[in-house]
Amino acid sequence: xxxxxxxxPDIVKTSVPPDVEMSxxxxxxxxxxxxxxxxxxxxxxxxxxTRPRVVKQQQFLSEYIxxxxxPAKQLCAGIVMPDADSFGFGKHLEEISITVPKxxxxxxxxxxxxxxxxxxxxxxxxxxIVHLPPYSPxxxxxxxxxxxxxxxxxxxxxxxxxxxxxxxxxxxxxEFSQKTELIKSLTTRDWAEI
Length: 194
What we know:
Oligomer: single chain
Number of strands: 5
Helix content: 25-40%
Number of domains: 1
Structural class: alpha/beta
CATH topology: Nucleotidyltransferase, domain 5
Largest sheet: 5 strands, mixed
CATH superfamily: Ribonuclease H-like superfamily/Ribonuclease H
Strand order of the largest sheet: 3-2-1-4-5
Shape: globular
Order of helices and strands: HEEEHEEHHH
Distance between the termini: 17 Å
């Protein structure tokens, strides 16, 4: 982890195509999160001495939010898919590529999930992928984004069907993506600035 933080600018320089100027590069962070009927429970306000009840579903319907953020540009790119796999990841890379401003190049930092390293992935020309070291989710600020979204929009809920889950995911991501200052404050990392 220390090696990544210390050498991050050099890692980026050696990863991007030779024709890309470093002044054109933006750092993005990417990850996926499952949202479903067996969702998250969070703390709630209650009168002292009371024990409020919170719902917890036992069914198994779920969807995945694929999300990416660029702290410097305060941009987000997200999609909702039924599975965390190489197909969904490929679609998310397409979404990120469309969101990257014209003339810019995105270095997308992510973990080494199986679908992130699949040989079948077609990476758009305006994106370079940099993988985090194994077992280091704390380096990916997208984890804080998931925590914020689940705490504020998706926890302590009951979903009747898959459509309700999709609508809740889309609403939560849409609301978060409009909070540009929050994007910057949650996801900026000094070590990831180039």
